[in-house]
Every structure is written in structure tokens, then in C-alpha cells.
């Protein structure tokens, strides 16, 4: 039996998270940033931090559970955090690494949606369509976000940020912006037969300002882990554009601020169609459209992305060694990105 399958009266991810906090003790700095009322309970949204508290330390942020139905995003983050906490007892290299870098994590942002097993939050709002960002050009309706009805998918809400979105924005502003270097990884599922790593924009098919840096990160990952070629890294807008993307909102805010520091958010889209292809019976279960159901496949997915998360943490700590800072290097990486993703100009 799969112990992480949801049931009416339990939220297994929250139990895993609270058990992890008990085990970690002072190694993890934990704060409840929001309480979501639901069915007579108040469900906590936890912010976890590890590592350096220096204001100039680079920051790696990991996020999951923005879409409650995509529970695997929270589950893979919790599996990785469990690994980190266990390694702290004996892994001197990890202890040294965390002296140099700050780790910020919101593993269960839409805790109400997780409890209800819905994509949207308890108010019916899709949090990734909720930010005050309007897409440029054509956007497929309703996929790109709609305000017609909360009873239809991809509902944006009524021109205000939902509490969960406000909590995420507040944590990113406090912990990640205005730092020399910060990267975010937001974990989702439910798109295609490949695991994709997306970077801004979601709102526009324009060439993103940090195309060169995204190409540089892709290069060092592929060079370091050539057997992990199951990831397809690309701009999100190559697939579709949307209104209201929270990461576009934060990314644009950082650009507008004129801050000289670096901030770039990524989204991991786990290819859930592959799980359905291997187990077609999942088509008859809405939960199975977005999550691995069979126990052996769940274990495989939980360990599949540990290398990627470790890489993101180490790349953040060592950002000065690979980030292109000379104009000549940036121009070369940008040209490589244009040739790969924008062959008709950009």
C-alpha cells in the first residue's frame, strides 16, 4: 500500500513534515507563516531554513504544493529534506556547505488544497494564476487563467492576492531578494512525458533577461551529470503562456528594483503523463493524473530528483565559479540560447 496516498481524514505530507522537524531539532529553523482554516482546523504553512544566516550568503529556495493535487511536488522535497537532516549527523562536506549557503523551503504552500486534493486553494483560486501579471499576446482560454468562475479550472481570483500567494511572496522577499545570488526551484507535476525544468517567462514569448545564465546552469548540469538527460530545460513560454504567474511577478519585481544581485526562479514539471502511460488504470482516478500511484514507482520518483536538488544547492554556494559575469561570456551563452530556443530571432 502507498502510505502517501491521501485519505479523507489525514494529510500524510504534513505528518511527515512535522516528524522531520522533531528529528531535526535546532538544525532546521522553522516558522509557521500562515494558518489556513479548513473544516474546523487550522492547517499550518511551514517555512524551513537551514544553513548560513549571513545577509550576504547566496540563497537556494525550494517550493512545493502550490497546486494541491500535485502532491508529488511536496513529497519529493520532503524526501530530500529527510536526506539532508540524516546526513547532517555525519556528512562533514554538507556541514561545510551549509556554512556558505542559505536554504529556504516552503514544502506545502497550498496546504488547504493538499487537504482537499484539489489544484486550487480552498477559495477555489489557482495560485499560479493569482498574481497581478497580464500575459502578452495570445493566451489559450481558460488555461492561461480566467475570472469567469471559481467552478472552472485555472480561476485567477478577484484582483487580489490569496493568503497563500502573499505568504510565498513575503518569504521570497525576506529571504531571497536583495542577495548577491538566489535561485528558486518550484516543484510541480502534470505536463507531458518528460521532466521539464522551466524558467521565465510564463507571461510572454519574449527572450528572458537571464537567458545566458540559464544556459550556463544547463551546461554545468549536463556536463556534471551526463546520464541525467531525462530533464528538458527550456523557457516555459515555448509550451504556453499564462496570466498571473507568481514567479513572473517576483522576477519582474526584482528586475524593476534595479538590485545588482541575481535572482532566477525555475519550475520543475515532472512528466506525469509517463506514469499514466505505464499504468493506464490511473486514468480512472483524478489523483492518478498527477501523481505516481504504485509504491515502487513512487519510490523511484522520490529518489529521481535528489541529484538535481543537491546540484542546485551546490551551484548556489559556488555561483561565482560558473555564473557568466564578463560580457563576452554572457554574449556567448545568450547566443547559444537564442539558437536553441529562439531560432527566428530574439
UniProtKB/TrEMBL annotation:
Q: Which family does it belong to?
A: Belongs to the peptidase M14 family.
The UniProt record lists the Peptidase M14 domain at 7-346
Which PROSITE patterns does the entry link to?
PEPTIDASE_M14 (PS52035)
Q: Which GO terms describe its biological process?
A: proteolysis
Q: Which InterPro entries match?
A: Peptidase_M14
Q: Does the keyword Hydrolase apply?
A: yes
Q: Which organism is it from?
A: Fluviicoccus keumensis
Q: Which Gene3D superfamilies match?
A: Zn peptidases
One of its Pfam families is Peptidase_M14
Answer whether the UniProt record assigns the keyword Membrane to this protein: no
Cofactor section:
Zn(2+)
* Parts of the chain that traverse the membrane: none
What keywords is this UniProt entry annotated with?
Carboxypeptidase, Hydrolase, Metalloprotease, Protease, Zinc
Molecular-function annotations in GO: metallocarboxypeptidase activity; zinc ion binding
Per its record, how is this protein called by name? Zinc carboxypeptidase
Offer a single GO CC term for the protein: extracellular space
Amino acid at each position: 500500500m502507498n502510505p502517501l496516498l491521501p485519505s479523507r481524514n489525514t494529510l500524510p505530507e504534513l505528518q511527515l513534515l512535522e516528524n522531520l522537524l522533531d528529528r531535526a531539532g535546532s538544525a532546521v529553523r522553522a516558522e509557521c507563516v500562515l494558518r489556513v482554516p479548513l473544516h474546523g482546523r487550522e492547517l499550518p504553512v511551514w517555512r524551513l531554513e537551514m544553513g548560513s544566516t549571513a545577509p550576504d550568503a547566496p540563497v537556494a529556495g525550494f517550493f512545493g504544493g502550490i497546486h494541491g493535487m500535485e502532491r508529488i511536488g511536496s513529497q519529493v522535497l520532503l524526501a530530500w529534506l529527510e536526506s539532508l537532516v540524516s546526513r547532517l549527523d555525519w556528512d562533514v562536506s554538507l556541514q561545510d556547505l551549509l556554512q556558505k549557503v542559505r536554504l529556504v523551503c516552503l514544502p506545502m504552500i497550498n496546504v488547504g488544497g493538499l487537504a482537499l486534493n484539489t489544484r486550487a486553494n480552498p477559495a477555489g483560486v489557482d495560485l499560479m494564476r493569482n498574481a497581478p501579471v497580464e500575459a502578452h499576446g495570445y493566451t489559450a482560454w481558460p488555461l492561461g487563467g480566467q475570472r469567469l468562475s471559481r467552478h472552472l479550472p485555472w480561476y485567477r481570483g478577484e484582483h487580489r492576492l490569496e493568503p497563500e500567494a502573499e505568504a510565498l511572496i513575503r518569504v521570497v522577499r525576506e529571504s531571497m531578494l536583495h542577495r548577491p545570488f538566489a535561485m528558486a526551484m518550484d516543484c510541480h507535476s502534470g505536463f507531458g512525458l518528460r521532466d521539464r525544468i522551466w524558467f521565465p517567462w510564463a507571461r510572454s514569448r519574449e527572450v528572458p533577461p537571464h537567458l545566458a545564465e540559464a544556459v550556463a546552469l544547463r551546461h554545468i548540469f549536463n556536463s556534471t551529470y551526463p546520464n541525467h538527460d531525462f530533464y528538458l530545460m527550456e523557457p516555459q513560454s515555448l509550451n504556453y503562456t499564462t496570466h498571473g504567474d507568481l514567479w513572473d511577478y517576483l522576477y519582474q519585481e526584482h528586475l524593476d528594483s534595479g538590485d545588482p544581485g541575481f535572482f532566477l526562479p525555475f519550475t520543475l514539471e515532472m512528466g506525469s503523463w509517463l506514469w499514466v502511460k505505464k499504468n493506464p488504470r490511473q486514468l480512472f482516478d483524478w489523483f492518478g493524473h498527477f501523481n505516481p500511484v504504485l509504491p515502487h514507482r513512487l519510490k523511484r520518483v522520490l529518489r529521481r530528483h535528489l541529484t538535481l536538488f543537491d546540484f542546485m544547492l551546490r551551484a548556489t554556494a559556488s555561483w561565482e565559479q560558473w555564473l557568466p559575469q564578463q560580457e563576452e561570456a554572457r554574449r556567448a551563452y545568450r547566443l547559444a540560447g537564442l539558437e536553441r530556443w529562439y531560432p527566428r530571432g530574439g
